[in-house]
Design goal:
This is ATP-binding cassette domain-containing protein. This protein is α/β, with parallel strands linked by helices and about 300 residues long. It is built from 12 helices and 12 strands. The strands form 2 sheets. The protein has an 8-stranded mixed β-sheet with strand order 6-7-8-3-9-10-12-11, with helices on both faces. Strands 2-1-4-5 form a 4-stranded antiparallel β-sheet, with helices on one face. α6 packs parallel to α7. The longest helix is centred in the middle third of the chain and has 18 residues. The protein starts with 7 loop residues before the first strand and ends with a helix. About 35% of the residues are buried. The protein binds adenosine-5'-triphosphate.
């Protein structure tokens, strides 16, 4: 994709999500982040546990009411929309959750789980049409349509995650937030689910925000990567650029902690420590230091790269 072809589907501006605001236990889970997600791309959102990845996803999709800031979806500001109007947008944005065991109601049949959105948005003309849509969705995620009448406990983790993907696809969204969709799965299954998500993306021109703490898999699925640290984006660029030329010390430390498959290289491989005691300095903000490469830094540092 060249710059001129990149059309944002989601624009996040100065988004803040604070919990227990003004109280002693206030948490600035998301602290003034701004970024775009382009149509048809996968933006990987990475960071360690507690950095605010899930909160970012949930705030964009309005599972939380943002403390402040704006979220534009197809140029409409949805950050302050009220319930009735929000429903239409919910149909276009879906979420796939981390834990395929917790996210599927064990008392519901697979067909009712998948058809949840179809029912809410009245997308089936009658029960035959509903069944047909469910069968098509099961086929799309490479599951046997005959599974429709079974319950979640009859399936493996990978199969359950496919059911979760079918549920998300049921309302024909154009934007999906995948919140660590593979981290609860066996390594052998992870690639299958990633490949499925990529095939579906190509077929349907979907846009993904792919949340991950594991940097090795996110590399293969993401066009661009945003690195989140303590509720702030500290670096964002095309995937190759982030992996080959990381500029922020936190990104450098994250990448240096990824195991190297070659034992020869591993011997000379040092984990770069990041000073967590003074992570941010006065005057720093996310600045475009090279075309398409954003770094959380001060003006003087940004000048160095121009
Ligand atoms: N509902 C909530 N109430 C209070 N604090 C919360 C709530 N949800 C998240 N937090 C806090 O906000 C911070 C960010 O959490 P979040 O779950 O977004 O991080 P994460 O990067 O997704 O982590 P993980 O990889 O562990 O899921 C954490 O300090 C967390 O404890």
């Amino acid at each position: 994709m060249t710059n001129s072809e990149q059309k944002p589907i989601v624009k996040v501006r100065h988004l803040k999500q604070y919990f227990n605001e003004g109280k002693k236990d206030e948490v600035k889970a998301v602290d003034d982040i701004s970024f775009d997600i382009y149509e048809g791309e996968t933006l990987g959102l990475v960071g360690e546990s507690g950095s605010g990845k899930t909160t970012t996803g949930r705030s964009i999709i309005r599972l939380y009411n943002p403390t402040s800031g704006d979220v534009y979806f197809h140029d409409e500001n949805i950050a302050k929309l009220k319930n009735k109007h929000l429903k239409d947008f919910r149909k276009q944005m879906q979420m796939i959750f981390q834990d395929p065991y917790a996210s599927l109601d064990p008392r519901m049949k697979v067909k009712d789980i998948i058809a949840e959105g179809i029912d809410i948005h009245h997308l089936a003309q009658n029960s035959e049409d509903r069944d047909r849509q469910v069968a098509d969705l099961l086929k799309k995620v490479n599951l046997n349509p005959e599974f429709a009448n079974r319950y979640p406990h009859e399936f493996s983790g990978g199969q359950r995650q496919r059911i979760g993907i079918a549920r998300a696809l049921a309302v024909q969204p154009d934007f999906i937030i995948a919140d660590e969709p593979i981290s609860a799965l066996d390594v052998s299954i992870q690639a299958q689910v990633v490949n499925l998500l990529q095939d579906i993306q190509e077929e349907q021109g979907l846009t993904y925000l792919f949340i991950a703490h594991d940097l090795s898999m996110v590399k293969y699925i993401s066009d661009r990567i945003a690195v989140l640290y303590k509720g702030k984006i500290v670096e964002m660029a095309e995937t190759e650029e982030v992996y080959n030329h990381p500029l922020h010390p936190y990104t450098q430390s994250l990448l240096s902690a990824v195991p190297v498959p070659d034992p020869e290289l591993e011997r000379n491989h040092h984990v770069k420590e990041f000073d967590h005691s003074h992570p941010f300095k006065e005057g720093e903000e996310l600045r475009e230091v090279k075309p398409g490469h954003f770094l959380y830094c001060d003006e003087a540092t940004a000048q160095k790269y121009q």
